[in-house]
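Long-time lurker. I teach an intro course on protein structure, and each term I like to show students one example going from raw sequence to a predicted 3D structure in token notation. This year I'd like something fresh instead of my usual example. Would anyone be willing to generate the tokens for the chain below so I can use it in lecture? Attribution to the forum is fine with me.
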Amino acid sequence: MTRRISRSFLLVCLVFALGASFVFLTDAAAQSRAGVAGKSKFAKNKDRQSAPKRDSENYLTDRKVAAQGLRERTHKRLTRVHQLIGEEKYDEAMATAQPLLDGTKGLPYEYAVVLQTIGHIHAAQGDYARSIDVFKEAVAMDVLPNHSHFQLMLVIAQLYIVTDRFREGLGYLDVYFSALIKAPPNAWELKAIAHAQLEELRPAIDAIKMAIALSNKPKENWYQLLLGLHYQLKEYPEAAATLETLIAGWPKKKDYWVQLSGLYVELKKDKRALAVLVLAHTEGLLDKEKEWLSLANLYMYKDVPFSAAEVVAQGLDIGMIEPTKKNFELLGNAWYQAQELDLAIEAYQEAAELWDEDGKMDLQAAYLLVEQERWAEAEGSLAAALRKGDLRDMGNVYVLMGMTYFELDRNSDAKRAFREARKFSKAEAAAREWLKHIEDREAKAAQQLSMAN
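-- Reply from a regular --
Happy to contribute to a lecture. Here you go:
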């Protein structure tokens, strides 16, 4: 029952993580606004730099950078660049941003902010390789405030991972984690994805569990990733627990109910498997024939044939279950085990009408008709069974036919049937007894008639 995590699923997870972190890249504009606004007219030197300080209590690093701002001209140009990015005019944005590199080469902070913006444009255009190079150059300058500096490392890690350079991505993540007191959940998600792609399943589980633990509202796809990892490691009890969580959070997702029921079957917890599928059915979530039939078969396995029959009958009535020989046979078996013989006969007869390959369904109906002493109907089902053929115990079939003819007072036909039955070793003794019984009865009747005359 092992299920490998598909690359497409991991990429979907990565898209969510990547999208979340690119928001911060607009910090260049925010930084520029803050830098310009922060220059008071009372300052003695408008370019004066403040004393180094840590810009966030969330960082363990002793890295200190001077608080800096952008010149008015740079701020205006970057604001225009970010407007163009927002309008998805990436070529024009690049053409506007590129000249700023030459104009800010002597100003490390401004140069780094421009690099950050250009890297954003490359990433938006899907040129992740160039984006990585530009972002790495911005980080190497070591002039951005802690938030931007380390967030840029997180984005580099993401870009490495999305370009299948998982080990390099994990390296940047390690630096990022070492600098933070408490890394955000999406960073742990990214770590989990990288480890999963490298088939390092246990570290992947630890990472995605950390993402879940740190989040006030864990994402559905995080649990899906955790589920896939447990499946790959064949940790079915843990997978079942994860599915229970998914059902609690997303109760209308049918697949979780169906998967959980299947897992419980795998774990030999059949009562739970049935209970889960019954709840899903009650909620109206099951919308495929396979699922209805799985429920019916589980009912049969747990010796609840009446409920199994009700599920199949309802499914046939509303068109959820196809009216095939196999499905009517299942219905007949369920009604038979539930001791609803009339309904079982009807189901077997429906199956027989749909099946000409052999006479087994006709014979099944005939057995029950004989049991209920419905001789005329039994004769018709037995005749159909013999006509279609491919029956295992022909001797017994002829015995049943002989009995039916006998009860219908058709002794000549009965004797002919018993003579045929006599040809089969398993039925020979019974056939001889019946023939003797008929012959004795006929002799007695003849003697009584002779005496009466």
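Some talking points for your students: The domain at 7-183 is CATH 1.25.40.10 (Serine Threonine Protein Phosphatase 5, Tetratricopeptide repeat). The chain has three domains: 7-183, 288-380, 393-453.
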